[in-house]
């Protein structure tokens, strides 16, 4: 998946990129499938996300940075709760 990035990142490193000033979003349990309408980068602050991209599964937890390119089809399964800081059209 071109443009899809997922990596661990400490909070101190994240702050160097200004992530501490990004908008936040949170959700309780939910399952969603679809494509991203625009490119989004996010840093997970709390909770857990079961992410499926194509035939690959990813467990996304706090201190993980993810970039979703525009049009990327994926499935989000939030088992309990998740909170992320996010910004559109941002690349590291």
From TrEMBL:
Return the Pfam families for the record: Cupin_3
Q: Name the domain of life.
A: Bacteria
Q: Where is the (S)-ureidoglycine aminohydrolase cupin domain?
A: 18-86
What InterPro entries does the annotation carry? Answer: RmlC-like_jellyroll, RmlC_Cupin_sf, UGlyAH_Cupin_dom
Gene3D superfamilies referenced in this protein's UniProt entry, alphabetically: Jelly Rolls
- State what protein this is by name: Cupin
| UniProt organism field | Siminovitchia terrae
